[in-house]
Amino acid sequence: MSGPPHLSVLGGGPAGLAVGWAARRRGLPVTLYEASDRLGGNCTTLRSGAFRYDSGAHRLHDRDPEITGEVRRLLGDDLRRVDVPSQIWDDGRLIRFPLSSAELLAHLGPLPFGRAALEVVRARLSAGAPPQDFEAFAVRRYGRLIAERFLLDYSAKLWGAPAAELSTGIAGQRLSGLDLRTFVSESVLGRSKAHVEGVFYYPRLGIGQISERLADACGRDAIRTGAPVTRLLHDGERIRSLEIGGRARCDADEVVSSLPLGRMLEMLDPPPPPEVRCLAGAIRYRQVRLAVLFVDRPSLTEAATVYFPHRRFPFTRVSEPRNRSPEMAPPGRTSLLAEIPCHEDDEIWRADDGAVIDIVRAHLEAIGWVRPEEILGGAAHRMANAYPVLEVGCARAVEGIHRYLAGFANLWLVGRSGRFVYGWIHDMMRMGLDTVAEVADRRRREA
Fold first, then answer.
1. Could you give the CA distance from residue 390 to residue 403 in angstroms, rounded to a whole number?
2. Which H or E element spans position 108?
3. Predicted TM-score (pTM) of this structure
4. Mean pLDDT across the chain, nearest whole number?
């Protein structure tokens, strides 16, 4: 092999765009293929008149200082630090998230709180093997009362499977703060612990600004939208060429994919062995229907995101975009964005936009958040493959697929869908930077 490697990037979400940006910074040639006409994947900003709203309650967490610094350089003053906490809607009231023992005391009352506190103490002091599923994990950390009230039904709604069938990996870094030390410091000593959940960075014009600046840094001339990759032709050792849109072909040097694993297997020509194809049936991705209401009122909540754990609500969370940035709504008006997770065979996924908007509006009117005369309109969208469903036992199937794909010396996987992991924007960008570094390092060693 001679000359710098050319990277063919499949998918224009945050991970794919980060690969293109990192490649261009290193002086490596790159071409990014995106099937749709819009960049950002499931991390984009949409518009309706003067209203802006994201494809979910996205934000940039400051958990990777290098990534935060790079995004600052890309966006300049358009990246702002936001200190707005999230909340949970429970029994007609809002409480802070992550859960605080001091607030739980006020919310639950002394007797239920005492029971919950005792459960937490017993759970944290009990010996035993590490929990193997999310229900056991949540009960071990929070006790049965709190887990059932706030976490288990929510998780079942979000992932589309009972909590006992979900991997502990879905917890990520969200379940923190409510432990023995917190109970003692807040409930007994009266000290309040500051939670980092409400502090994050957010672009002035929506989360899609990150994707757009990454695309600019990648080089718009290197990006092909409306260009679905339909086949990956290989010789068993390397991907030799790509088929674009069922017609055009181009040679492949290094291929970086953020596409869903099942889709990757389907595109391989020749196809994988039957036992590998069967593994794709053991993994699932969760879809999301978005519904946004435009409201003739200056403000409706004080939260970045409000979580709805109870099954009576079809949505898992509702966000108010202007609480992230005032520029997300025109002066004197606001909007509410609801997320309804579902599977492709669910009725809500197939429902027309008007029906989805009406469902969300009815629930928000019922809890008194909006009045019919205030609603100016609405919009709805479908977000495919929004979350990999981390079910107990799926890791074996994912490992099998990854092991097979690792047999192609020039194929690299990135992103939520490509790696089948649950992560945040900074995680996806980190994958992009690290992957390009690995490609460059390996080619140097082979030279």
1. 18
2. helix 101-108
3. 0.91
4. 91
